[in-house]
């Protein structure tokens, strides 16, 4: 009977809705919550277990007949229809490679707080009100110290404001337009499991803020409140745009980050270690002195091959100061940039990421970004 039950469960996993994790979409889930009737991956099963949701391994655990029947009568599609009935378009649905805090809060929001069942919530959910304020720990621009700062998000004004002192009478430190705002979780880089990087355009450069909150629910609420404001802005800026077009533009994770060594324009200057970020949406390769810098040292636009841009492996002609040997050359119409990676794996990842951007046709907005970068030079 045990083998028969296992066979039945494996058959259920072949159904399209059950063939991916109910919570993050990872393929081939091999765990299940027999309290909720959903099939989940190993990572999400651990989160369910921490919520006192009963979980079992499909292949390793013993399954009673009644539990198999329960899984047959439920499954991922039924759970989605109930627990994801009214997920706002802007709410971020985590994927399998997303950080733990996003996945955990998505699971808690669905099953524990039942935020998306379509029932009216009172008081309303914070990220749905169009206005949010609170304290976040923010890293100083010139140092590594994190201090509490008040942040205020206004969807009506499309602004995120923060204050350097708790006394607001002295006015805000910065009023940031939602127009160019991005938010992405960076727990490893920031050194906190709830670390969030907020980036925006300030004059002729990009400004990075690094923040966190001790409460996982609070930081994810901030993230989705920012996404709600961004979504409202995009709906105003592109009134004919569909959700399919606009949702990927709300916020984005950077396609690749990491250290490389960089030399100067003549390729004879000493190599210096720099932190690089590739923002594929804006086709920008930023480089910084350190990974938590507030502003970039420079930015390189990545166009297309037919516009004179290229990406290839290289061996530098001169090697003053470089300790790393795996080269990447980025060609632009103006000059060639030479970067060195520490390992071949890093070199391959950078080449793949850069070629991914290079192969994508340029949009009208891309030409504007290219022109602005070239004008600043």
UniProtKB/TrEMBL annotation:
GO terms for molecular function: GTPase activator activity; phosphatidylinositol bisphosphate binding; phosphatidylinositol-3,4,5-trisphosphate binding; zinc ion binding. This is ArfGAP with dual PH domains 2. One of its GO terms (biological process) is heart development. Its main location: cytoplasm. Pfam families: ArfGap, PH. It comes from the Eukaryota. It is found in: Cytoplasm. InterPro entries: Arf-GAP_dual-PH_domain, ARFGAP/RecO, ArfGAP_dom, ArfGAP_dom_sf, PH-like_dom_sf, PH1_ADAP, PH2_ADAP, PH_domain. Keywords: Cytoplasm, GTPase activation, Metal-binding, Repeat, Zinc, Zinc-finger. It comes from Perca flavescens (American yellow perch). Residues 6-124 form the Arf-GAP domain. GO terms for cellular component: cytoplasm; plasma membrane. Residues 129-231, 253-359 form the PH domain.
């Amino acid at each position: 009977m045990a083998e028969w039950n296992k066979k039945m469960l494996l058959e259920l996993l072949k159904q399209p809705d059950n063939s991916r994790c109910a919570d993050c979409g990872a393929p081939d889930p091999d765990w299940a919550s027999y309290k909720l009737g959903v099939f989940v991956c190993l990572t999400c099963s651990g989160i369910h277990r921490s919520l006192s949701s009963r979980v079992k391994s499909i292949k390793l655990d013993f399954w009673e007949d009644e539990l198999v029947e329960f899984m047959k009568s439920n499954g991922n599609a039924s759970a989605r229809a109930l627990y994801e009935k009214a997920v706002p378009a802007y709410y971020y649905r985590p994927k399998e490679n997303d950080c733990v805090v996003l996945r955990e809060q998505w699971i808690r929001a669905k099953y524990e707080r039942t935020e998306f069942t379509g029932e009216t919530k009172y008081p309303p959910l914070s990220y749905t009100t169009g206005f949010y304020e609170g304290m976040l720990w923010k890293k100083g621009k010139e140092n590594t110290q994190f201090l509490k700062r008040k942040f205020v998000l206004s969807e009506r004004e499309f602004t995120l404001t923060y204050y350097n002192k708790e006394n607001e009478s002295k006015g805000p430190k910065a009023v940031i337009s939602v127009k160019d705002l991005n938010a992405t979780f960076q727990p490893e880089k920031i050194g906190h499991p709830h670390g969030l990087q907020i980036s925006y355009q300030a004059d002729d450069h990009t400004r990075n803020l690094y923040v966190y909150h001790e409460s996982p629910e609070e930081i994810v609420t901030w993230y989705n409140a920012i996404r709600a404001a961004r979504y409202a802005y995009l709906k105003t800026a592109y009134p004919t745009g569909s959700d399919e077009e606009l949702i990927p533009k709300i916020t984005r994770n950077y396609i690749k980050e990491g250290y490389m060594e960089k030399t100067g324009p003549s390729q004879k200057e000493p190599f210096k270690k720099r932190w690089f970020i590739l923002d594929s949406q804006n086709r920008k390769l930023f480089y910084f002195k350190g990974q938590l810098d507030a502003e970039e040292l420079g930015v390189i636009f990545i166009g297309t091959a037919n516009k004179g841009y290229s990406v290839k492996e290289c061996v530098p002609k001169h090697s003053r100061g470089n300790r790393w040997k795996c080269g990447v050359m980025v060609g632009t119409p103006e000059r060639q940039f030479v970067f060195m990676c520490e390992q071949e794996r890093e070199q391959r990842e950078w080449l793949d990421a850069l070629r991914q951007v290079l192969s994508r046709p340029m949009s009208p907005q891309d030409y504007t970004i290219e022109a602005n970068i070239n004008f600043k030079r």
